[in-house]
Design a protein that fits this description.
Elements (H helix, E strand, L loop, with lengths): L1 H9 L6 H16 L3 E7 L6 E8 L9 E2 L4 H8 L4 E3 L11 H10 L3 E9 L2 E10 L8 H54 L10 H14 L5 E4 L6 H11 L8 E4 L5 H9 L16 H4 L4 E5 L6 H13 L1 E3 L6 E3 L3 E6 L3 H6 L5 H7 L2 E4 L10 H16 L5 E2 L1 H9 L5 H15 L4 E2 L31 H15 L10 H5 L3 H10 L9
Parallel strand pairs: 7-12, 7-13, 8-9, 9-12, 14-15
Antiparallel strand pairs: 1-2, 1-6, 2-3, 4-5, 5-6, 10-11
C-alpha cells in the first residue's frame, strides 16, 4: 500500500490534492480499522493547524475542514515535533489538557495518534488517527509505518504546492511582461500625441473649458469630450489623465473608428488563444491594460451597436470576458470618451444605445472650434513653430505679420489639426529665420463642419484657392451680409470674430471698398 501511495503522490497536481489525500486516508482507515483519519497543515503561530481533509466511518463525524479546534497542549506538542500517543483517553492526557478532556467527553473519543510531518526540517503538517468504538494500542512499528505514509503525503502535497506557486508566478511574470510591452507601446504613442499639460489660451470661452477639465480631473467621473474633428480633444484627454490620481501610469488610447468591426472587440476586451482564425496567442485587451489607470475611447460614436452592450457592462461594474473565453475579468478603469458626432441624434436614429449615452454623458465638455477662439491662433502657431523647429533643425525668430493676419482671418474647417499641418508645410518650405506662410500655397480647405465652404456658406465643397483670395472672399461676404456695417452688434467684425479696427486694417490692405450706387 505504501508503494502504491508513493506512486500516486509522485506526480500529484495541486488541483487534485484534496481528492488524493482523502483517498489515501480512506485506504488507511479501511486497512487498519481506524474510525477516523485526518490530515491538517500548519498555517501560522496564531492558528497552527488547518484541516485539509478528514474521512470517517458511518456514525462518526469527520473533522470539519478549516481551522482545527483550539487544543493548546495537543498542538504545542505537535508543533514541537513530538508524536502524541494516546492509547487510553482520558487516562493518558496530562492535567494541562483541559480542552482536550472536554472534547473527548463531547464526542466519545477513546484513542488517538497524531504524527507531526516535516519537510525541509520544518513541521508542515500532521496526520491523525482516532478510535471511537474502543481503546487501541499504538505499537512502535505501526507508528513508524504510519509516519512513512504521512511523510509521503506531506512531500507530495508540498511538491504540488510549490509547482502550483511556480506556475502561478510564471503566469504572472508572463502577464506583467505582456502588460509592460503594451504599456511601453502606449507610452510611445502618448509621447507623440501630448505632454499631459493643460494648453494655454487667451480665449475666455476655451479658458472656461480648461477650468471644467481641471475640476473633473481629480474625480473618477466619466468624461465625454464633444467637438469637431481636430479641435484637440485628445490633448485635453491627456491633460485630464495626467491631472488625475492615475497620472503616473500611461493612458490607454483606442480609436474606435480606426479599427474594423471584426477586430475592435478583441482590441478592447482581449482574446484567448484560438478564439478565431489567426489568434495564435492570448492577447490582453485595452481595458485590461488600463486597469488602475485611464482609457481614452476616441470616436466612440463609431463603435458598432453590437459592442455597445459589452462596453455598457464594463462602465457599470468593470466586468467583461475575453473573446473566446469564459472567465470574467474585473478591472477598475477611468473612462474618457470623445466624439465629433451628435450622440443624442444618433440615439434618436437608433444608431447608439440610449443607456450607454447616459453612462458616457456624466460630465460632457464641449470643445469649441478654432474659429471661435481666434485669439489662440498666434499662440498655437508659435507653439507648432517651436516644436517643429526643434525636430527640423530650423530656428525661427519671427512669423511674418501678414501671415499671422491671414491665419487669424481664415475659418479653419480642420481646426487645430489643419493649422498644425499648414505650419509644418510652411516650415518645410521656409529658408530664413522669419516664417512666411506662403499666401500662394494652395490649401484644399474641404467642407466646413456644416458641409459648406468656409468662404461661402451657400456653396458646396470649397475649391482650391490662395489664402489671400479666401480671406478677401470671407470679408466681402460678411460685409455684404451686414449691409457693409463694420461695427456694432451683428456687424461684420462680430461675424468674423475680430476687432473692428483689425477688420478696417485688413480691408485697407486687401483694397476692399464699399461699392457706390450706380
Amino acid at each position: 500500500m505504501l508503494g502504491d501511495l508513493s506512486a500516486r503522490f509522485s506526480d500529484l497536481t495541486a488541483r487534485h490534492i484534496v481528492d488524493e489525500v482523502s483517498h489515501a486516508l480512506g485506504r488507511l482507515m479501511e486497512f487498519l480499522g481506524f474510525d477516523r483519519c485526518s490530515y491538517a497543515e500548519v498555517t501560522d503561530t496564531e492558528r497552527p493547524f488547518d484541516v485539509l481533509c478528514s474521512v470517517s466511518r458511518t456514525g462518526v463525524d469527520p473533522m470539519p475542514t478549516g481551522p482545527a479546534p483550539s487544543f493548546s497542549w495537543y498542538f504545542s506538542e505537535l508543533r514541537a515535533g513530538r508524536i502524541v500517543v494516546l492509547s487510553d483517553i482520558p487516562a493518558d492526557l496530562p492535567p494541562a489538557a483541559r480542552a482536550e478532556r472536554d472534547y473527548r467527553r463531547r464526542v466519545g473519543l477513546k484513542s488517538n495518534l497524531a504524527i507531526p510531518l516535516r519537510v525541509g526540517g520544518r513541521v508542515v503538517a500532521i496526520i491523525a488517527f482516532s478510535a471511537f468504538q474502543q481503546t487501541r494500542p499504538w505499537p512502535p512499528d505501526l507508528i513508524l509505518r504510519l509516519k512513512l505514509v504521512g511523510e509521503v503525503l506531506a512531500q507530495g502535497v508540498a511538491r504540488s504546492r510549490r509547482e502550483a506557486e511556480l506556475a502561478s508566478a510564471l503566469a504572472e511574470i508572463t502577464r506583467l511582461k505582456e502588460r509592460l510591452e503594451a504599456e511601453n507601446h502606449c507610452l510611445r504613442q502618448s509621447s507623440r500625441t501630448g505632454c499631459g499639460r493643460l494648453p494655454s489660451s487667451r480665449s475666455p470661452g476655451f479658458n472656461r473649458v480648461l477650468a471644467e477639465i481641471t475640476q473633473v480631473a481629480s474625480t473618477n467621473a466619466t468624461v465625454l469630450l464633444l467637438g469637431e474633428t481636430g479641435t484637440g480633444k485628445e490633448v485635453l484627454a491627456d491633460a485630464i489623465h495626467h491631472l488625475s490620481e492615475h497620472g503616473s501610469r500611461p493612458m490607454i488610447k483606442v480609436n474606435c473608428a480606426a479599427l474594423p468591426a471584426s477586430l475592435i472587440e478583441a482590441e478592447l476586451f482581449g482574446r484567448e488563444k484560438g478564439a478565431y482564425t489567426g489568434a495564435l496567442a492570448r492577447q490582453p485587451g485595452r481595458f485590461e491594460l488600463a486597469d488602475g489607470s485611464t482609457i481614452f475611447l476616441d470616436e466612440v460614436g463609431e463603435l458598432p451597436l453590437e459592442l455597445q452592450t459589452k462596453l455598457l457592462r464594463v462602465l457599470q461594474d468593470g466586468r467583461f470576458e475575453r473573446v473566446g473565453g469564459n472567465r470574467t475579468i474585473q478591472v477598475k478603469v477611468r473612462v474618457i470618451a470623445a466624439t465629433n458626432l451628435d450622440l443624442a441624434h444618433a440615439v434618436a436614429e437608433g444608431r447608439f444605445r440610449a443607456d450607454l449615452y447616459y453612462r458616457l454623458n456624466v460630465f460632457p465638455v464641449v470643445v469649441p472650434p478654432l474659429r471661435e477662439r481666434r485669439e489662440d491662433i498666434p499662440l498655437l502657431a508659435w507653439e507648432f513653430v517651436r516644436e517643429l523647429g526643434e525636430s527640423m533643425g530650423k530656428p525661427i525668430e519671427h512669423i511674418a505679420p501678414d501671415s499671422i493676419d491671414a491665419l487669424v482671418a481664415y475659418a479653419w474647417p480642420g481646426n487645430v489639426r489643419e493649422l498644425r499641418n499648414l505650419i509644418e508645410r510652411a516650415m518645410i518650405l521656409n529658408r530664413g529665420r522669419v516664417l512666411q506662410v506662403p499666401l500662394s500655397t494652395a490649401l484644399s480647405t474641404g467642407p466646413s463642419p456644416s458641409g459648406r465652404s468656409p468662404s461661402n456658406p451657400d456653396a458646396g465643397p470649397a475649391s482650391v484657392g490662395t489664402l489671400r483670395e479666401r480671406e478677401r472672399e470671407q470679408i466681402l461676404q460678411a460685409l455684404q451680409q451686414t449691409g457693409w456695417r463694420v461695427r456694432g452688434p451683428g456687424g461684420a467684425a462680430e461675424r468674423l470674430g475680430i476687432k473692428p479696427t483689425t477688420l478696417e486694417s485688413r480691408m485697407q490692405r486687401l483694397e476692399i471698398r464699399r461699392p457706390t450706387s450706380g
